[in-house]
Design brief:
The protein is α/β, with parallel strands linked by helices and about 475 residues long. Helices cover about 40% and strands about 20% of the residues. The chain folds into two domains: about 260 residues, 3-Layer(aba) Sandwich (Aldehyde Dehydrogenase, Chain A, domain 1); about 200 residues, Aldehyde Dehydrogenase, Chain A, domain 2, CATH 3.40.309.10. Strand 1 and strand 2 form a beta hairpin. Helix 2 packs antiparallel against helix 4, helix 3 packs across helix 4 and helix 3 runs antiparallel to helix 7.
């Protein structure tokens, strides 16, 4: 692990196995951090904070640009590590590294927006505000985009002047540790730290540490609720980017073939096997085009190549780890038991006897009483619901306690915008696949989270506003 500029083992000597989900073979071991390790990282960050804060924003931005260059220079190695460790296809992991490079450069470019303001206070006083970075930031990220999240999601706090402690997903930590090795001498000791270990131990110790006032978490709703409970005890500033059960609405005027292909893309099947909080896993199709749409959707998923994530021609690799594979297969079984019609997939692909592989899965005749329509599966499972009444459809779309993204397909722009305003989600895509330009705020409504990421809003969330009044004599 990287703590205080040094590469160290866990104090207790414990390790966690890293398993290649394509072969089920152990490919490495990562330190299993203890609460003492977390405390050491916190105190190192605290010590390093004032000097990092006091650098000019242009100086911090220069380091961030070097950080981005390190990732770009080591793109192939980091992408290979993630493909081996997470099962995500090598092509999408290359794209992940490049995406992280872009986001780091973005935050380097806007670091100067951490500025104050003046307030009218009469002829005998001057009142102004200053941006004061948090002394320590914990950045806890999930397993699905390992190096992208470990690197890009540390960019905003670093740009704001905060030292950071990154805790990657326990199942896919190899690339984050390699990242720590690569940047060990780039940042001053204690400014950038990487700890690994179980969420219940290391993650909880970090989220609940009394000297960590700012925690940013990305992951499931259930874990986010635990992080929020820990933060509430000490009135921490929290941001939570949590799960979703995201709708894609198909109106009868949409081009069916194009929309079906877009639905596959919006599901992130060929990027991370649907292991994405933004995946459009609930598809609401108007009855007039439902039969045609289902045919086109099944045809599109059949074209996806499932196989070795190290093969450039692979579209879908395995799920990330055994327990998650078992959960996804259990939910697929529940869909069949509850009466949904399995049109494609739901089983292990033929010829792949090892690994946590699942064929891309399409269910029809789904209704909102079914688990596959209500629970975030976080896997390659698409549930298609049909509708005729607009108001009833919107009621079903908004019926869940989560609201991260939404997708609308129609040629009627007025209808699209009116519908977007009525979807209770934080990010809406019209006639798209959910791709977001850098700088567009991302975050959910309801139990999908608190706060915005990947934009100026995130940068400013890593500091507090201090007001100063000077009486003139």
């Amino acid at each position: 692990m990287l703590i205080d500029g040094q590469l160290v083992e866990a104090t207790g000597g414990g390790t966690l196995e890293s398993v290649n989900p394509a072969t089920e073979e152990v490919v490495g071991a990562v330190p299993e951090a203890t609460a003492d390790d977390v405390d050491r990282a916190v105190r190192a960050a605290e010590k390093a904070g004032p000097a990092w804060r006091d650098r000019t924003w242009t100086q911090r931005a220069a380091v961030l640009r070097q950080y981005a260059q390190v990732l770009e220079d080591n793109l192939e190695e980091l992408a290979h590590l993630d493909a081996i460790d997470s099962g995500n296809p090598i092509t999408s992991m290359r794209a992940d590294v490049q995406s992280a490079v872009g986001e780091i450069r973005y935050f380097a470019g806007i670091a100067g927006e951490t500025k104050g303001r003046t307030i009218p206070s009469g002829p005998d006083a001057l009142t102004f505000t200053e941006f004061v970075p948090y002394p320590v930031v914990a950045r806890i990220v999930p397993f699905n985009h390992p190096v992208k999240f470990a690197s890009a999601k540390s960019a905003a706090p670093l740009a704001a002047g905060c030292p950071v402690i990154v805790k990657p997903g326990e199942q896919t930590s190899l690339s984050a540790l390699r990242l720590g090795e690569l940047v060990k001498d780039l940042f001053p000791a204690g400014v950038f730290n990487v700890i690994t270990g179980n969420g219940a131990t290391a993650g909880a110790a970090l989220a609940g540490h009394p000297r960590v006032p700012r925690v940013a978490f990305t992951g499931s709703v259930a874990t986010g609720q635990r992080v929020a409970a820990l933060g509430a005890e000490q009135v921490k500033h929290l941001s939570l980017e949590l799960g979703g059960k995201n709708p894609l609405i198909v109106f009868p005027d949409a081009d069916v073939a194009t929309t079906a292909k877009a639905a596959v893309a919006a599901m992130n099947l060929a990027r991370c096997m649907g292991q994405s909080c933004g995946s459009a896993s609930r598809i609401f199709v108007h009855e007039d085009v439902s039969e045609e749409f289902l045919g086109a959707l099944v045809e599109a998923v059949r074209k996806l190549k499932v196989g070795d994530p190290m093969d450039d021609d692979t579209d879908m690799g395995p799920l990330a780890f055994r327990a998650h594979y078992d959960k996804v297969m259990g939910l697929i079984a529940s869909g069949v038991e509850e009466g949904a019609k399995l049109l494609h997939g739901g089983v292990r692909p033929e010829g792949l006897d090892k690994g946590f592989y699942v064929e891309p899965t399409v269910f029809a005749q789904v209704d909102m009483s079914m688990r596959i329509a209500r629970e975030e599966i976080f896997g390659p499972v698409m549930s298609v619901l049909t509708w005729r009444d607009y108001e009833d459809m919107l009621e079903q779309v908004n019926s869940l306690d989560v609201g991260l993204t939404g997708n609308i397909w129609t040629n009627d722009i007025s209808l699209a915008l009116r519908t977007a305003r009525r979807i209770h989600s934080g990010y809406i895509s019209v006639n798209g696949t959910g791709k977001r330009p850098i700088g567009s705020p991302f975050g959910g409504f309801k139990q999908s989270g608190i706060g915005k990421e990947s934009a100026l809003d995130e940068l400013l969330s890593y500091g507090r506003e201090q007001s100063v009044t000077v009486t003139l004599r």
